[in-house]
Design goal:
The complex is a heterodimer of chains A (151) and B (175).
Chain A (H helix, E strand, L loop, with lengths): L4 H25 L8 H28 L19 H22 L9 H25 L11
Helix pairs in contact in A: 1-2, 1-3, 2-3, 3-4
Chain B lengths: L13 H14 L8 H8 L3 H13 L3 E3 L5 E3 L1 H24 L4 H12 L4 H15 L2 H17 L14 H4 L5
Helix pairs in contact in B: 1-2, 1-4, 2-3, 4-5, 4-6
The chains are: A mainly alpha (151), B mainly alpha (175).
Chain lengths: 151, 175
């Protein structure tokens, strides 16, 4: 395990920001949905809002358990008009993939840590499932996805 | 005048310009390719935001991605990034070398203004600076005169610049 505790806390704060920001983004996006498949997309976003916020809270608890106060830095302004559900879900897929990659890149830094390694492994499993679910939903819209290996 | 409304309607937004510059900067070490995580770190925003913003740039043909989600500027994107850098350099040189604004402030202000002025105005400003530097002795004299004039200016309070309203009276109250 090469990273210092301060570096780990910085990384955890960044991961928390990814999750919290995604939640806010989904919150706004849910009200932009128009067109065929709106109900499906709305259902996805309603769940995703809760889950991403829960993930942010789980990370905050890890930071707290390490004796630190979570520090949340988000610079977000979301706007825009009505949006087809497939476009909104496409953006959500990008956000979920970004979160998955963030966890994957963090894993080697917590290798051997008694609490953080199992936690990050668990998050990778959950995020991998999210990405796969979302890809499945997008396929149901008839979209051809570019092959992106989920590690 | 509806000019203020045009600030949001530029071909390249401030955010887009910064993304292009970050991809260019990060990609320099890796044959032009940049990771989303490095772009996010460079811009100090989340990867999610970078990913969303890249979608718009990709739609406009300014960036391309590969199967591993690595990002690269297209020839059009590289051209746009170079235009941003050139305009910024022209503004910064003018602020720092001609007006004598401290380097850090010149850097900040050139970044803010870069995407608001037209290419035509930036070109005229670049031409003006080339004109100034075409005679180094005359330039030194001019800058020395400007320094002296600047020091004496507060006592005068009227000139043709702002038609009777001295900008030096108003600027300290700017928010």
């Amino acid at each position: 395990m090469g990273a210092s505790e301060a570096e780990l806390i910085d990384d955890l704060n960044r991961l928390m920001a990814e999750e919290a920001e995604a939640s806010m983004r989904y919150f706004q996006m849910r009200f932009r949905l128009r067109g065929r498949g709106r109900e499906t997309a709305e259902k996805f976003f309603a769940e995703a809002i809760k889950e991403t916020l829960e993930h942010a809270e789980l990370i905050a608890k890890q930071i707290h358990a390490l004796g630190h106060v979570p520090s949340l830095q988000i610079n977000l302004s979301v706007e825009g008009g009505p949006m087809p559900p497939e476009d909104a879900l496409g953006e959500a897929l990008d956000v979920e993939q970004a979160a998955l990659e963030a966890y994957q890149e963090f894993l080697p830094r917590v290798a051997g840590h008694p609490t953080l390694e199992p936690f990050i492994r668990q998050q990778i499993a959950i995020e991998t499932e999210h990405v796969q679910d979302l890809q499945e939903v997008l396929r149901s819209f008839g979209l051809k996805l570019v092959a992106k290996p989920v590690v | 005048m509806d000019t203020w409304k045009q600030f949001e309607a530029n071909e390249l937004t401030h955010s887009a310009a910064h993304h292009l510059l970050a991809i260019h900067e990060v990609g320099l070490q890796y044959g032009g390719w940049a990771r989303v995580s490095d772009i996010a770190r460079e811009l100090q925003i989340t990867r999610g935001s970078v990913s969303i913003n890249l979608r718009a740039l990709k739609k406009r043909g300014l960036v391309e991605t590969d199967a591993h989600r690595l990002v690269k500027l297209t020839p059009e994107g590289l051209q746009a990034a170079k235009a941003v850098m050139a305009t910024r350099a022209v503004l910064k040189t003018f602020f720092a070398d001609v007006l004598g604004v401290p380097d850090i402030q010149a850097d900040i202000d050139s970044c803010k203004i870069e995407h608001l002025i037209s290419h035509a105005t930036a070109e005229r400003l670049a031409l003006f600076q080339r004109f100034l530097t075409s005679d180094p002795d005359a330039l030194q004299q001019l800058l020395a005169r400007f320094q002296r004039f600047h020091a004496e200016c507060p006592q005068e309070r009227s000139c043709d610049v702002c038609k009777g309203h001295c900008p030096l009276d108003g600027l300290p109250h700017a928010i």
